[in-house]
Amino acid sequence: MSEPLDVLERNIAALRRAIRDASTSGDAERATELRAQLRRAERAWDALLDTTEPAPARAEDPAAGAATKSLVSQAMMLPAREHAHRALMLLQAPAAPKLIVTVHEAFFPGELSAAKLSSLRRDEERSYRTAPGARPYYLCPALNYDLLGPARALITISTWSLEQRILGPLSPRVDFLTSTINIAEAVHLAGATGVGPTPAALRLLWRFAATITDATASTSTAGGVGVDPQRVIDAAAAELAIHESADQTTRAEAARRARKQLTEEQQLFGISMRQINQVRTGS
């Protein structure tokens, strides 16, 4: 099963546990919101399943090569939003278009450019307004924790929880460390399956690891030589443990405000500056 599907299945399992906990504690509002997230996540799983690779064909099977070429061809024909979705599912954190493109190039087939992503967020919002919930997922902006407006140039996925889509003061570093761990795990997985990570994936891992204490060996180079995915994971996890609790507290408080104050559409796409100014002036 592909890495994005694995991550999405873990999210679905976590949502189901959270629904059970909310129901047990009598928090009906939270349980209802989580069930909506679960439905979106399950629709996203169904959509992703159509593009995942089937079980490998036997080496002596003459159709193996043709099947692989067909899968690559299908992946290359996917729309930009599908490519962006796969990259974000790997990162599991809000990301700028440039990073989304870089991650996609490192781990997935097909073409994606920042230019294609520039208007995609507006298209997603228009699509939602035309037919809310018609798509299994939407690409939407991250939300600032204070005013609950859209964060500039940071994209998330609607099936993620509000807490995951909201940015507090510590969130950029927390999200960076989270993405680093997921990139390292993807590189490790590629090596474990015998396929091996691409040079672009190794370069990306190096770039992320270079800013984390003890994440790289002294012999590492910009080309990725000497980068140990497990060492990167351990170093990133160690720093993440320092910041994660405080960041989660900020995000959880902002998410509670958002659920009380915002419509479902606003919880996905944020409130506009005009709406923020109206709140400030009391008009």
Characteristic key phrases:
single chain, 283 residues, mainly alpha, 3-stranded mixed β-sheet, 13 helices, 3 strands, globular
Task: Please provide a written account of the structure.
The protein is mainly alpha-helical. It has 13 helices and 3 strands, in the order αααααααββαβααααα. It has helices at residues 3-25, 28-49, 63-76, 80-91, 97-107, 114-118, 120-130, 162-165, 171-192, 199-209, 229-261, 264-269, 273-281; strands at 139-144, 150-157, 166-167. The chain has a 3-stranded mixed β-sheet. The protein is globular. The model is unreliable at 53-60, 63-77 and 219-224 (pLDDT under 50).
Secondary-structure map:
Elements: H1 3-25, H2 28-49, H3 63-76, H4 80-91, H5 97-107, H6 114-118, H7 120-130, E1 139-144, E2 150-157, H8 162-165, E3 166-167, H9 171-192, H10 199-209, H11 229-261, H12 264-269, H13 273-281
Helix pairs in contact: 1-2, 1-4, 4-5, 5-10, 9-10, 9-11
Query: H/E series, N to C?
Result: HHHHHHHEEHEHHHHH
Number of strand elements:
3
Largest sheet: 3 strands, mixed
Q: Label the overall shape.
A: globular
Number of helices: 13
Order of strands across the widest beta sheet? Answer: 2-1-3
In terms of per-residue confidence, which ranges show pLDDT below 50 for 5 or more consecutive residues?
A: 53-60, 63-77, 219-224
Distance between the termini: 52 Å
What fraction strand?
Answer: 5-15%
Percent helix among the residues? 55-70%
Radius of gyration: 20 Å
Structural class: mainly alpha
Let me know the average pLDDT: 81
Produce a short descriptive summary:
The protein is mainly α and 283 residues long. It has 13 helices and three strands; from the N terminus they run αααααααββαβααααα. Strands 2-1-3 form a three-stranded mixed β-sheet.
